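Design request, tokens follow.
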């Protein structure tokens, strides 16, 4: 063991994968493991080989396909069944044969669970722990033990719960992680129990679920009480309310408590890694996630903005760069001139007093009509650019567009769009077909412009959101469309508002393409 200091143990691939709606392939799991290794976690629990064929496959492929720099793999599994020898139990054999240097055994530590779920005696449960741990130790594996339902078990029968810890430690388990399996604990009470457990002399770890909203706080309280091994999941994934968010735990311990858990450069990559993992899991990133969320360092109130200009540290708890995030100013109707100027500077534009006044007026006017620049950074930047330059950023002008939606006799619905554009002195007519009117328009615009602007091939519409807004002052309701577009290096959002949904979509689409060309470095 090169360094057996404080342990950061990730269980995204096993416990996190229990999250409703999460379905990871073996390739997904390998990809997530690489990201976690990039963050510098010490241990990655890959799953339960033998019990789950996909996990058996993961460990098999990991041996040739995973080249981990920091992390060691752990295979998760249960202690042997009652009444057999660990050496003869096929599930224990699967753990042995997984190739993982570490085996994390889950064991019962709650007397009622032993009797009701395991249907064996308290004595036999201890024998199962002793036998399985020492068997795996003899076979050269390092063994961690997850004491399931530990805190409820402690409440039910303290002496027995502590006896489980002693038994595992004596048999050679190097860490015993106390699991708040039902996630019902609060920090003060949990810390007292951890303190008592540390008194047994066993090395104590902590595994928390977030059912009380305290998983991270509980983890920190356990560390304060003497735990030296923390378990958690990327982005707080997990069943019910999730597991302790490992990213929050690591950032808190490293930045607020001075622990040296992951290389500072890797911590500075945490925001990117958190988002890269959401790409694999296909779970929408939580923009409010501490440290790594899009909004984690976003400021809205106009009142603060003038002070933020003077000293950003007055309004943020850490320098966002430490976790690879950014301070972001939201532009909204709450914001005054100071935040518009600040946002302009963030984007690299220096506004004069007149320009920022003009821009604030324009933002207010458009937001009153239903636009939202907070969610549409690219639309705001185009507006800002137009204000500074005194003219619109245009790579093409639109003569007309038309969309036909047809329900065919067989019942399928097809949309067809025709656009007539002018670009680089040419008049271009193009037609696109799609599964919906916006998709058809998007295809027609690209078809029209791709010959003149080949970069558009890499630009892709990735999200489309529609909201009906109440009409103000007796007017009709309007539709707001937000489009998210991406290219190889990032994504941007644009907004359109109109009584007609297709027109609103067109506005957002036109800006999306314009901004994409601007990003690609085209001068107007
Ligand atoms: Zn768990």
């Amino acid at each position: 063991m090169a360094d057996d200091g404080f342990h950061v143990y990730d269980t995204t691939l096993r416990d996190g994968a229990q999250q409703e709606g999460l379905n990871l392939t073996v390739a997904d799991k390998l990809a997530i493991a690489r990201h976690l290794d990039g963050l510098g976690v010490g241990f990655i629990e890959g799953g339960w080989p033998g019990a789950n064929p996909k996990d058996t496959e993961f460990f098999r492929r990991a041996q040739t396909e995973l080249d981990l720099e920091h992390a060691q793999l752990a295979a998760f599994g249960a202690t042997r069944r009652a009444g057999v020898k660990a050496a003869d139990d096929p599930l224990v054999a699967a753990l042995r044969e997984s190739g993982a240097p570490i085996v994390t055994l889950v064991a019962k530590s709650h007397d009622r669970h032993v009797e009701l779920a395991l249907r064996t005696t308290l004595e036999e449960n201890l024998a199962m722990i002793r036998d399985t741990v020492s068997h795996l130790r003899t076979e050269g594996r390092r063994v961690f033990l997850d004491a399931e339902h530990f805190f409820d078990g402690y409440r039910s029968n303290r002496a027995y719960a502590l006896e489980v810890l002693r038994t595992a430690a004596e048999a050679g388990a190097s860490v015993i992680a106390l699991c708040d399996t039902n996630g019902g604990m609060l920090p003060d009470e949990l810390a007292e129990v951890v303190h008592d457990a540390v008194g047994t002399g066993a090395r104590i770890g902590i595994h928390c679920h977030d059912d009380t909203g305290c998983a991270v706080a509980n983890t920190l309280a356990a560390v304060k009480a003497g735990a030296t091994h923390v378990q958690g999941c990327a982005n707080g994934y997990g069943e019910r309310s999730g597991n302790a968010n490992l990213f929050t735990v690591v950032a808190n311990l490293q930045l607020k408590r001075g622990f040296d858990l992951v290389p500072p450069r890797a911590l500075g990559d945490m925001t990117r890694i958190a988002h890269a993992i959401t790409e694999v899991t296909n779970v929408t990133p939580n923009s409010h996630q501490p440290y790594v969320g899009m909004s984690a360092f976003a400021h809205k109130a106009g009142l603060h903005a003038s002070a933020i200009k003077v000293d950003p540290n007055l309004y943020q708890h850490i320098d966002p760069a430490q976790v690879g995030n950014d301070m972001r100013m939201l532009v909204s109707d709450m914001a005054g001139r100071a935040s518009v100027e600040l946002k302009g500077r963030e984007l690299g534009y220096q506004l004069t007093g007149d320009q920022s006044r003009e821009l604030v007026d324009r933002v207010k006017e458009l937001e009153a009509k239903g636009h939202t620049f907070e969610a549409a950074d690219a639309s705001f930047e185009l507006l800002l650019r137009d204000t500074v330059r005194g003219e619109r950023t245009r790579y093409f002008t639109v003569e007309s567009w038309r969309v036909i939606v047809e329900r065919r006799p067989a019942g399928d619905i097809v949309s067809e769009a025709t656009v007539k554009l002018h670009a680089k002195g040419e008049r271009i007519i193009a037609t696109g077909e799609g599964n919906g009117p916006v998709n058809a328009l998007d295809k027609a615009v690209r078809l029209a412009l791709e010959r003149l602007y080949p970069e558009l091939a890499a630009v892709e519409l990735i999200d489309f959101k529609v909201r009906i807004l109440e009409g103000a002052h007796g007017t009709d309701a309007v539709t707001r469309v937000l489009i998210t577009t991406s290219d190889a290096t990032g994504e941007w959002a644009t907004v359109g508002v109109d009584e007609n949904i297709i027109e609103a979509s067109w506005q957002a689409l036109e800006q999306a393409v314009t901004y994409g060309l601007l990003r690609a470095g085209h001068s107007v």
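Comment from the thread starter after seeing the answer: thanks! The chain has a mean pLDDT of 91.
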